[in-house]
Design a protein that fits this description.
The chain has 28 helices and 14 strands.
């Protein structure tokens, strides 16, 4: 009976036993032994591991079968996730030496692909693709120090400094990371963990948001001290951590933490000026708090529009109206976000970056009228360029920079149509729908979603149901035309090309040919032109009218 109680109380721990009784415990055999000797220094206790039920990827067993006699450990996030009962997309293995040949051996045995990640640091990667096409990365690396414990102590946070011994089926936890998991705490492995690699500041904030954990007080201080060192990390590593933050849960909480810990000046310096910049009603926040509210609202909106979301999951009237009006476009929205602009980063993450920077130029464009009303003329156009500069500094692709620039430059368009709908009962015309998507293309979908989030982030609990309904009506009309009527109002098929037009109107090559073609295309979108003959007649009339008016 006592043994059963011990197993339950010390599951996953190493214990020192004397005469059948537990006298000490620790995260490794050595720690348990030291703890026992501190009180029973003249005795030799038995060191035993108390098993704990764990669920892990079948690939772990396959690696064990390929390397049955090899000293090898599953380490880091995979062990953390295993203890949290979560699945892990990647598996990291640590071995004393010869990691690259061992990785090759595993790849050959599993029929998987192999690549060398870092020859100098003896790191290889196995890329396993299952029957459904899903990939799992298995990384093999030699110890960073002389021993496994040295390797673990050199890591970022205690919850990631965990190992699972494949041969013994036992957890090794020299820094009490499992205890931190239980109390939901992010704690650095050492006072120099963050200064040694400042990118860990971003990672710690991201993981705190991802798991809903608190950051240890000492670790917060070390983060503040390490923030000015972020420039040591490559812009690519900074960018990748930023996208993980924006792609993860509660991006607003992560960005708020970056500001509170003094990281923004060294990471996203353009955002530091937003705090304290007041706005007129209907805004209820300053520009900084508004930006965070938009991030939160955007996450809520995307969650409610995700495939599989049940409208019964919310008691919120505004979310219920959202799903009722545009919930039918879930599949199309999912496909939109599944169409990448870059294989390494998501469109969703880019949209959150856009939301983060959509009002970045409000501080420098702020004016106060005699009436006291605060205005921000051209903040959209200027903000688009500032955001594009930040995107280029992070080495985003040209397509990503273009998408971000388009959305920020045009983000006030949605509000114009919403205002007309609410104030005058006027729906967007076919011409305005065509022009909306002519300027934005596929980015128009993101403009709609950002517009809805911007509205909620502006008025918060003061948002009237009538205003929200008007915005949803505009969103429905725009998405309906984009997803269901693209050839009618978004991208009508060309009835003429430039050669046809030049021949019919006796024009020479030049910009005017493109102008006439665009006028014809807009006339198609508004229903004025439907045949080749209509197009020629309209083109001739439009050209003559423009020539005489000039």
């Amino acid at each position: 009976m006592g043994d059963e109680k011990d197993r339950s109380a010390y599951a996953g721990r190493w214990v020192a036993r004397l005469h059948g009784h537990v006298i000490a415990q620790g995260g490794t055999p050595e720690l348990a032994r030291r703890a026992a000797l501190s009180t029973r220094h003249k005795e030799s206790p038995e060191i035993v591991y108390m098993p704990v039920e764990l669920t892990f990827s079948p690939l772990v067993d396959q690696v064990r079968a390929v390397l049955p006699d090899q000293e090898i450990y599953l380490v880091g996030g995979a062990v953390r996730d295993m203890l949290l009962g979560r699945s892990s997309p990647d598996l990291d293995f640590s071995v004393p030496a010869r990691a690259i040949p061992l990785a090759r051996k595993v790849a050959n045995a599993l029929g998987a692909d192999y690549m060398t990640l870092d020859e100098e640091h003896d790191t290889g990667r196995v890329i396993y693709t299952d029957a459904d096409g899903a990939r799992t990365y298995l990384d093999f690396a030699s110890f960073r120090g002389k021993t496994l414990e040295d390797d673990l102590r050199d890591r970022d946070f205690t919850i990631n400094a965990l190992a699972y011994d494949l041969r013994e089926g036992a957890i090794l936890d020299p820094l009490e990371g499992a205890a931190d998991l239980r109390v939901r705490r992010i704690r650095a492995c050492s006072p120099t963990s963050l200064s040694n690699d400042p990118i860990r500041v971003l990672r710690g904030i991201r993981q705190a948001a991802a798991f809903g954990f608190q950051i240890d007080k000492s670790t917060r201080e070390w983060m503040k001290q390490a923030a000015p060192l972020l420039g040591r990390a490559s812009v690519e590593r900074q960018r990748d951590e930023l996208f993980k933050i924006l792609d993860g849960p509660k991006p607003d909480a992560s960005i708020r933490a970056l500001e509170m810990l003094g990281v923004l000046p060294y990471f996203l310096p353009e955002l530091t000026a937003l705090k304290g910049v007041e706005q007129s009603a209907p805004h209820i926040h300053d520009v900084w708090a508004h930006t965070l509210a938009v991030l939160q609202s955007l996450e809520d909106i995307l969650s409610a529009l995700a495939v599989g979301y049940s409208a019964d999951a919310t008691n919120d009237l505004y979310t219920g109206l959202l799903t009722l009006r545009i919930g039918r476009y879930r599949e199309q929205i999912a496909r939109h976000f599944d169409t990448p602009l870059n294989t390494d980063r998501s469109v969703r993450g880019l949209l959150f970056l856009t939301a983060l920077y959509h009002d970045v130029c409000k501080p420098q464009t702020r004016t106060v009228e005699e009436s006291g009303r605060i205005r921000f003329f051209d903040h959209d156009e200027q903000g688009a360029e500032v955001a594009a500069e930040r995107a280029l500094a992070f080495h985003l692709s040209n397509d990503e920079v273009s998408r971000l620039r388009i959305v920020i430059k045009n983000h006030m368009r949605f509000h114009f149509h919403t205002s007309r709908m609410e104030g005058e009962g006027k729906s967007p015309s076919r011409r305005s729908i065509y022009r909306f998507f002519r300027e934005s293309g596929p980015a128009g979908v993101e403009l709609v979603l950002l517009g809805l989030a911007d509205l909620r982030g502006t008025q918060g609990p003061n948002l009237r149901q009538e205003s929200w309904s008007a915005a949803l009506d505009v969103a429905r009309i725009l998405l309906e035309n984009y997803f269901e009527k693209p050839e009618e109002t978004i991208a009508p098929p060309r009835l003429l090309d430039g050669h046809d037009l030049m021949s019919a109107l006796d024009l020479k090559p030049g910009p005017v040919v493109g102008d006439v073609l665009e006028a014809i295309r807009e006339a198609q979108a508004t229903g004025k032109v439907s045949t080749r003959e209509d197009a020629l007649a309209f083109g001739k009339s439009w050209f003559e009218e423009q020539r005489h008016s000039s």
